[in-house]
Amino acid sequence: MNLLEAVRSSLEALRANLLRSLLTMLGIFIGVAAVIAMVAVGSGARELVLQQIKSLGSNLMIIVSGSVTSGGVRMGSGSRLTLSEDDAVALQREIPSIQVSAGIMRGTAQLVAGNLNWSTVVQGVHPGYFEAREWEIDQGRGFNPEEFDSAGQTLLIGYTVAYNLFGESDPVGQQVRVKNVPFTVIGVLQRKGQNTFGQDQDDTVIVPLTTAKRRVLGTSQANARAVGTILVKVRDGDDMAEAEQQIRNLLRQRHRLQPHQDDDFWMRNLSEVAETRDASSRTLALLLAAVAAVSLIVGGIGIMNIMLVSVTERTREIGLRLAVGARRRDILAQFLIEAVSLSMIGGVAGVALGAGAAVAIARVGGWPILIQPEAVALAVGFSALVGIFFGFYPARRAAQLDPIEALRHE
Protein backbone atom coordinates (compact mmCIF):
# COMPACT_ATOMS: atom_id res chain seq x y z
CA MET A 1 0.00 0.00 0.00
CA ASN A 2 1.47 3.33 -1.05
CA LEU A 3 1.40 6.54 0.98
CA LEU A 4 -1.54 8.06 -0.91
CA GLU A 5 -3.69 5.01 -0.31
CA ALA A 6 -2.70 4.98 3.37
CA VAL A 7 -3.71 8.65 3.75
CA ARG A 8 -7.04 8.08 1.95
CA SER A 9 -7.80 5.04 4.10
CA SER A 10 -6.93 6.93 7.27
CA LEU A 11 -9.16 9.89 6.41
CA GLU A 12 -12.05 7.54 5.64
CA ALA A 13 -11.60 5.88 9.04
CA LEU A 14 -11.66 9.31 10.73
CA ARG A 15 -14.75 10.37 8.79
CA ALA A 16 -16.56 7.19 9.81
CA ASN A 17 -16.38 8.43 13.45
CA LEU A 18 -16.55 12.16 12.80
CA LEU A 19 -17.80 13.36 16.19
CA ARG A 20 -15.28 11.24 18.06
CA SER A 21 -12.50 12.54 15.80
CA LEU A 22 -13.53 16.15 16.40
CA LEU A 23 -13.59 15.70 20.17
CA THR A 24 -10.18 14.03 20.01
CA MET A 25 -8.74 17.00 18.14
CA LEU A 26 -10.02 19.43 20.77
CA GLY A 27 -6.95 19.30 23.02
CA ILE A 28 -4.57 19.91 20.10
CA PHE A 29 -6.91 22.59 18.78
CA ILE A 30 -6.88 24.54 22.06
CA GLY A 31 -3.16 24.03 22.65
CA VAL A 32 -2.09 25.31 19.24
CA ALA A 33 -4.53 28.23 19.43
CA ALA A 34 -3.01 29.20 22.79
CA VAL A 35 0.51 29.01 21.34
CA ILE A 36 -0.35 31.23 18.36
CA ALA A 37 -2.23 33.80 20.45
CA MET A 38 0.54 33.82 23.07
CA VAL A 39 3.32 34.36 20.53
CA ALA A 40 1.35 37.02 18.63
CA VAL A 41 0.51 39.06 21.71
CA GLY A 42 3.94 38.57 23.31
CA SER A 43 5.81 39.52 20.13
CA GLY A 44 3.57 42.54 19.62
CA ALA A 45 4.16 43.73 23.17
CA ARG A 46 7.90 43.27 22.80
CA GLU A 47 7.90 45.19 19.52
CA LEU A 48 5.89 48.01 21.10
CA VAL A 49 8.37 48.33 23.96
CA LEU A 50 11.30 48.40 21.53
CA GLN A 51 9.59 51.10 19.46
CA GLN A 52 8.94 53.17 22.57
CA ILE A 53 12.54 52.82 23.71
CA LYS A 54 13.74 53.67 20.20
CA SER A 55 11.52 56.77 20.15
CA LEU A 56 13.44 58.08 23.17
CA GLY A 57 16.76 57.45 21.41
CA SER A 58 19.06 54.46 21.20
CA ASN A 59 21.85 53.91 23.76
CA LEU A 60 20.39 56.72 25.85
CA MET A 61 20.88 57.41 29.54
CA ILE A 62 19.03 60.07 31.50
CA ILE A 63 20.69 61.81 34.45
CA VAL A 64 18.31 63.72 36.74
CA SER A 65 19.21 66.20 39.45
CA GLY A 66 19.00 64.91 43.01
CA SER A 67 16.56 65.57 45.82
CA VAL A 68 16.53 67.94 48.71
CA THR A 69 15.37 67.18 52.26
CA SER A 70 13.53 69.91 54.16
CA GLY A 71 12.38 69.36 57.74
CA GLY A 72 12.85 65.60 57.35
CA VAL A 73 10.71 65.55 54.17
CA ARG A 74 12.39 64.28 51.01
CA MET A 75 11.12 66.34 48.08
CA GLY A 76 11.96 63.84 45.30
CA SER A 77 14.31 63.78 42.34
CA GLY A 78 14.86 67.09 40.59
CA SER A 79 13.88 69.17 43.62
CA ARG A 80 17.47 70.44 43.87
CA LEU A 81 19.43 71.38 40.74
CA THR A 82 22.68 69.52 41.31
CA LEU A 83 23.62 69.18 37.63
CA SER A 84 25.03 71.89 35.39
CA GLU A 85 25.88 72.64 31.78
CA ASP A 86 29.53 72.22 32.76
CA ASP A 87 28.80 68.63 33.88
CA ALA A 88 27.34 67.87 30.45
CA VAL A 89 30.41 69.34 28.72
CA ALA A 90 32.78 67.40 31.01
CA LEU A 91 31.00 64.09 30.39
CA GLN A 92 31.33 64.41 26.63
CA ARG A 93 34.93 65.62 26.86
CA GLU A 94 36.32 63.12 29.36
CA ILE A 95 34.46 59.85 28.65
CA PRO A 96 35.36 58.45 25.20
CA SER A 97 32.32 56.19 24.97
CA ILE A 98 29.92 59.16 25.14
CA GLN A 99 28.88 60.36 21.70
CA VAL A 100 26.98 63.42 22.90
CA SER A 101 25.57 64.85 26.12
CA ALA A 102 23.03 67.62 26.45
CA GLY A 103 21.67 69.62 29.37
CA ILE A 104 17.91 70.27 29.61
CA MET A 105 15.63 72.55 31.62
CA ARG A 106 11.94 71.60 31.76
CA GLY A 107 8.82 73.39 32.88
CA THR A 108 5.21 74.01 31.93
CA ALA A 109 3.76 77.11 30.34
CA GLN A 110 0.63 78.39 28.61
CA LEU A 111 1.02 79.03 24.91
CA VAL A 112 -1.24 81.54 23.17
CA ALA A 113 -1.71 81.76 19.40
CA GLY A 114 -4.42 84.15 18.27
CA ASN A 115 -7.56 83.30 20.25
CA LEU A 116 -6.37 79.75 21.10
CA ASN A 117 -4.20 78.61 23.98
CA TRP A 118 -2.62 75.36 25.12
CA SER A 119 -0.69 74.31 28.25
CA THR A 120 2.33 72.18 27.46
CA VAL A 121 5.84 71.19 28.50
CA VAL A 122 8.57 73.67 27.61
CA GLN A 123 12.08 72.29 27.21
CA GLY A 124 15.19 74.39 27.03
CA VAL A 125 17.85 72.29 25.33
CA HIS A 126 21.51 72.20 24.42
CA PRO A 127 22.37 71.75 20.69
CA GLY A 128 23.27 68.09 21.27
CA TYR A 129 19.71 67.27 22.41
CA PHE A 130 18.44 66.45 18.92
CA GLU A 131 21.32 64.08 18.20
CA ALA A 132 20.87 62.34 21.57
CA ARG A 133 17.12 61.91 21.06
CA GLU A 134 17.51 61.16 17.33
CA TRP A 135 14.74 63.68 16.72
CA GLU A 136 14.45 65.21 13.26
CA ILE A 137 12.58 68.28 12.04
CA ASP A 138 9.51 67.41 9.97
CA GLN A 139 8.62 70.94 8.81
CA GLY A 140 10.65 74.11 8.83
CA ARG A 141 14.18 74.24 10.25
CA GLY A 142 16.12 73.73 13.45
CA PHE A 143 17.92 76.26 15.62
CA ASN A 144 21.07 77.94 14.35
CA PRO A 145 24.11 78.61 16.58
CA GLU A 146 23.25 82.31 16.92
CA GLU A 147 19.85 81.46 18.44
CA PHE A 148 21.52 79.28 21.06
CA ASP A 149 24.09 81.95 21.90
CA SER A 150 21.79 84.99 21.96
CA ALA A 151 18.65 83.49 23.56
CA GLY A 152 16.72 83.81 20.32
CA GLN A 153 12.94 84.03 20.55
CA THR A 154 12.28 81.06 18.26
CA LEU A 155 10.84 77.66 19.09
CA LEU A 156 10.05 74.19 17.77
CA ILE A 157 6.74 72.50 18.50
CA GLY A 158 5.50 68.92 18.58
CA TYR A 159 2.55 67.69 16.53
CA THR A 160 0.15 67.73 19.47
CA VAL A 161 0.85 71.41 20.15
CA ALA A 162 0.70 72.23 16.44
CA TYR A 163 -2.73 70.61 16.08
CA ASN A 164 -4.22 72.26 19.17
CA LEU A 165 -2.96 75.75 18.32
CA PHE A 166 -3.08 75.81 14.53
CA GLY A 167 -5.29 72.90 13.44
CA GLU A 168 -4.61 72.08 9.80
CA SER A 169 -2.81 75.37 9.13
CA ASP A 170 0.93 75.52 8.58
CA PRO A 171 2.44 76.62 11.92
CA VAL A 172 5.88 77.52 10.53
CA GLY A 173 6.36 81.28 10.70
CA GLN A 174 3.40 81.81 13.04
CA GLN A 175 3.67 83.88 16.21
CA VAL A 176 2.93 82.47 19.67
CA ARG A 177 3.30 83.89 23.17
CA VAL A 178 4.90 81.89 25.96
CA LYS A 179 4.36 83.56 29.34
CA ASN A 180 3.63 86.77 27.42
CA VAL A 181 6.96 86.55 25.57
CA PRO A 182 6.53 86.55 21.75
CA PHE A 183 8.11 83.67 19.85
CA THR A 184 8.25 82.60 16.21
CA VAL A 185 7.58 78.96 15.30
CA ILE A 186 10.45 77.88 13.06
CA GLY A 187 9.71 74.15 12.81
CA VAL A 188 7.58 71.15 13.70
CA LEU A 189 9.23 68.04 15.13
CA GLN A 190 8.69 64.55 13.75
CA ARG A 191 6.07 62.47 15.53
CA LYS A 192 7.35 60.42 18.46
CA GLY A 193 4.15 59.16 20.09
CA GLN A 194 4.03 57.93 23.68
CA ASN A 195 7.14 56.93 25.56
CA THR A 196 7.51 53.93 27.89
CA PHE A 197 6.01 55.98 30.74
CA GLY A 198 2.84 56.77 28.76
CA GLN A 199 3.71 60.44 28.17
CA ASP A 200 2.89 62.12 24.87
CA GLN A 201 6.28 63.16 23.51
CA ASP A 202 4.65 65.32 20.83
CA ASP A 203 3.01 67.56 23.45
CA THR A 204 6.07 69.76 23.90
CA VAL A 205 7.75 73.00 22.92
CA ILE A 206 11.51 73.23 22.54
CA VAL A 207 13.53 76.42 22.86
CA PRO A 208 17.28 77.05 23.18
CA LEU A 209 18.57 76.51 26.71
CA THR A 210 19.68 80.14 27.00
CA THR A 211 16.20 81.30 25.97
CA ALA A 212 14.53 79.06 28.54
CA LYS A 213 16.66 80.44 31.34
CA ARG A 214 16.48 84.13 30.40
CA ARG A 215 12.92 84.47 29.11
CA VAL A 216 10.70 81.52 30.12
CA LEU A 217 11.75 79.28 33.02
CA GLY A 218 14.28 81.42 34.87
CA THR A 219 17.59 80.39 36.42
CA SER A 220 18.72 78.98 39.73
CA GLN A 221 19.87 81.68 42.13
CA ALA A 222 22.59 79.36 43.41
CA ASN A 223 23.94 78.41 39.98
CA ALA A 224 22.98 80.18 36.77
CA ARG A 225 24.37 77.28 34.70
CA ALA A 226 22.30 74.61 36.51
CA VAL A 227 20.15 72.18 34.52
CA GLY A 228 17.53 69.71 35.65
CA THR A 229 18.49 66.83 33.39
CA ILE A 230 21.38 65.65 31.24
CA LEU A 231 20.83 63.30 28.31
CA VAL A 232 23.77 61.08 27.42
CA LYS A 233 24.03 59.07 24.20
CA VAL A 234 26.58 56.24 24.30
CA ARG A 235 28.36 55.23 21.10
CA ASP A 236 27.07 52.12 19.32
CA GLY A 237 28.88 48.97 20.42
CA ASP A 238 30.16 50.41 23.70
CA ASP A 239 29.16 48.83 26.99
CA MET A 240 26.27 50.75 28.57
CA ALA A 241 26.96 49.44 32.08
CA GLU A 242 30.62 50.48 31.92
CA ALA A 243 29.68 53.92 30.58
CA GLU A 244 27.14 54.30 33.39
CA GLN A 245 29.80 53.57 36.00
CA GLN A 246 32.24 56.04 34.40
CA ILE A 247 29.54 58.73 34.38
CA ARG A 248 28.74 58.09 38.03
CA ASN A 249 32.43 58.25 39.03
CA LEU A 250 33.04 61.48 37.12
CA LEU A 251 29.96 63.23 38.48
CA ARG A 252 30.76 62.21 42.04
CA GLN A 253 34.28 63.57 41.56
CA ARG A 254 33.01 66.85 40.09
CA HIS A 255 30.42 67.25 42.87
CA ARG A 256 33.07 66.49 45.52
CA LEU A 257 31.08 63.68 47.12
CA GLN A 258 32.76 61.62 49.82
CA PRO A 259 32.69 57.78 49.62
CA HIS A 260 30.08 57.58 52.41
CA GLN A 261 27.78 60.10 50.71
CA ASP A 262 24.94 59.10 48.39
CA ASP A 263 24.79 60.29 44.80
CA ASP A 264 23.17 63.71 44.42
CA PHE A 265 21.73 62.67 41.05
CA TRP A 266 19.67 59.84 39.58
CA MET A 267 20.54 57.78 36.52
CA ARG A 268 18.14 55.87 34.27
CA ASN A 269 19.62 53.47 31.76
CA LEU A 270 16.89 53.02 29.13
CA SER A 271 18.38 49.73 27.95
CA GLU A 272 17.62 48.39 31.44
CA VAL A 273 14.02 49.58 31.08
CA ALA A 274 13.79 47.65 27.81
CA GLU A 275 15.32 44.56 29.41
CA THR A 276 12.89 44.73 32.34
CA ARG A 277 9.88 45.04 30.06
CA ASP A 278 11.23 42.26 27.84
CA ALA A 279 11.79 40.03 30.88
CA SER A 280 8.19 40.61 31.99
CA SER A 281 6.99 39.75 28.50
CA ARG A 282 9.10 36.57 28.48
CA THR A 283 7.70 35.53 31.86
CA LEU A 284 4.15 35.93 30.59
CA ALA A 285 5.07 34.05 27.41
CA LEU A 286 6.54 31.17 29.41
CA LEU A 287 3.41 30.97 31.55
CA LEU A 288 1.17 30.82 28.49
CA ALA A 289 3.53 28.34 26.85
CA ALA A 290 3.27 26.07 29.90
CA VAL A 291 -0.53 26.19 29.68
CA ALA A 292 -0.37 25.45 25.96
CA ALA A 293 2.06 22.57 26.52
CA VAL A 294 -0.26 20.98 29.09
CA SER A 295 -3.14 21.29 26.64
CA LEU A 296 -1.10 19.69 23.86
CA ILE A 297 -0.04 16.81 26.11
CA VAL A 298 -3.65 16.24 27.19
CA GLY A 299 -4.63 16.32 23.53
CA GLY A 300 -1.91 13.81 22.73
CA ILE A 301 -3.13 11.47 25.49
CA GLY A 302 -6.62 11.80 24.05
CA ILE A 303 -5.31 10.79 20.65
CA MET A 304 -3.54 7.76 22.11
CA ASN A 305 -6.69 6.74 23.99
CA ILE A 306 -8.93 6.99 20.93
CA MET A 307 -6.41 5.20 18.73
CA LEU A 308 -6.24 2.30 21.21
CA VAL A 309 -10.03 2.13 21.17
CA SER A 310 -9.93 2.20 17.38
CA VAL A 311 -7.43 -0.69 17.30
CA THR A 312 -9.72 -2.74 19.56
CA GLU A 313 -12.79 -1.95 17.45
CA ARG A 314 -11.03 -2.82 14.19
CA THR A 315 -9.18 -5.92 15.35
CA ARG A 316 -11.05 -8.22 12.90
CA GLU A 317 -10.39 -5.74 10.06
CA ILE A 318 -6.69 -5.74 10.90
CA GLY A 319 -6.61 -9.53 11.05
CA LEU A 320 -8.35 -9.79 7.70
CA ARG A 321 -5.94 -7.39 6.04
CA LEU A 322 -2.96 -9.25 7.45
CA ALA A 323 -4.44 -12.55 6.29
CA VAL A 324 -4.81 -11.39 2.68
CA GLY A 325 -1.22 -10.15 2.46
CA ALA A 326 -0.98 -6.70 4.07
CA ARG A 327 2.41 -6.09 5.61
CA ARG A 328 2.75 -5.10 9.24
CA ARG A 329 4.40 -1.85 8.24
CA ASP A 330 1.31 -0.99 6.15
CA ILE A 331 -0.88 -1.41 9.25
CA LEU A 332 1.61 0.65 11.28
CA ALA A 333 1.63 3.40 8.63
CA GLN A 334 -2.18 3.56 8.40
CA PHE A 335 -2.77 3.98 12.13
CA LEU A 336 0.17 6.36 12.50
CA ILE A 337 -1.19 8.50 9.65
CA GLU A 338 -4.59 8.55 11.37
CA ALA A 339 -3.00 9.87 14.56
CA VAL A 340 -0.94 12.47 12.71
CA SER A 341 -3.98 13.53 10.66
CA LEU A 342 -5.96 14.07 13.85
CA SER A 343 -3.25 16.26 15.35
CA MET A 344 -2.47 18.13 12.11
CA ILE A 345 -6.11 19.00 11.40
CA GLY A 346 -6.48 20.13 15.01
CA GLY A 347 -3.25 22.12 14.66
CA VAL A 348 -4.31 23.93 11.49
CA ALA A 349 -7.71 24.76 13.00
CA GLY A 350 -5.92 25.93 16.16
CA VAL A 351 -3.75 28.30 14.09
CA ALA A 352 -6.88 29.89 12.66
CA LEU A 353 -8.47 30.20 16.12
CA GLY A 354 -5.26 31.58 17.64
CA ALA A 355 -4.87 34.20 14.91
CA GLY A 356 -8.51 35.18 15.34
CA ALA A 357 -8.11 35.43 19.11
CA ALA A 358 -5.00 37.59 18.71
CA VAL A 359 -6.82 39.96 16.33
CA ALA A 360 -9.76 40.15 18.76
CA ILE A 361 -7.40 41.02 21.62
CA ALA A 362 -5.82 43.73 19.47
CA ARG A 363 -9.20 45.29 18.61
CA VAL A 364 -10.81 45.08 22.04
CA GLY A 365 -7.81 45.94 24.21
CA GLY A 366 -5.85 48.10 21.78
CA TRP A 367 -2.94 45.69 22.23
CA PRO A 368 -0.46 45.24 19.36
CA ILE A 369 0.04 41.79 17.84
CA LEU A 370 2.69 40.27 15.62
CA ILE A 371 1.87 36.89 14.04
CA GLN A 372 5.16 35.34 13.00
CA PRO A 373 5.30 32.65 10.25
CA GLU A 374 7.95 30.82 12.28
CA ALA A 375 5.55 30.49 15.22
CA VAL A 376 2.81 29.13 12.94
CA ALA A 377 5.17 26.58 11.40
CA LEU A 378 6.47 25.60 14.85
CA ALA A 379 2.96 25.13 16.26
CA VAL A 380 1.79 22.98 13.34
CA GLY A 381 5.04 21.01 13.36
CA PHE A 382 4.77 20.41 17.09
CA SER A 383 1.21 19.20 16.72
CA ALA A 384 2.43 16.71 14.11
CA LEU A 385 5.11 15.51 16.53
CA VAL A 386 2.45 15.05 19.21
CA GLY A 387 0.51 12.86 16.78
CA ILE A 388 3.58 10.78 15.97
CA PHE A 389 4.65 10.42 19.61
CA PHE A 390 1.26 9.50 21.03
CA GLY A 391 0.10 7.60 17.96
CA PHE A 392 3.10 5.32 17.62
CA TYR A 393 2.22 2.92 20.43
CA PRO A 394 -1.36 2.23 19.23
CA ALA A 395 -0.11 1.87 15.64
CA ARG A 396 2.64 -0.54 16.70
CA ARG A 397 0.16 -2.53 18.77
CA ALA A 398 -2.14 -2.85 15.73
CA ALA A 399 0.76 -3.92 13.49
CA GLN A 400 1.84 -6.65 15.94
CA LEU A 401 -1.55 -8.33 16.19
CA ASP A 402 -1.59 -12.02 15.36
CA PRO A 403 -3.81 -12.48 12.26
CA ILE A 404 -5.46 -15.69 13.55
CA GLU A 405 -6.23 -14.25 16.98
CA ALA A 406 -7.47 -11.03 15.36
CA LEU A 407 -9.89 -12.92 13.10
CA ARG A 408 -11.32 -14.73 16.14
CA HIS A 409 -11.97 -11.41 17.90
CA GLU A 410 -15.66 -10.77 18.56
Question: Strand portion, in percent?
Answer: 15-25%
What is the succession of H and E elements?
HHEEEEHEEHEHEHEEEHEEHEHHHHH
Strand order of the largest sheet: 5-6-11-8-10-9
Global morphology? elongated
Average of the residue pLDDT scores = 81
Poorly predicted runs are 69-78
The computed structural class is alpha+beta
Whole-number total of structural domains: 2
Helix content: 55-70%
Q: Tally of extended strands?
A: 14
Instruction: From the alpha carbons, calculate the radius of gyration and give it in angstroms.
Output: 33 Å
Mind describing the biggest β-sheet?
6 strands, mixed, barrel
- Report the total helices: 13
Gap between N and C termini: 27 Å
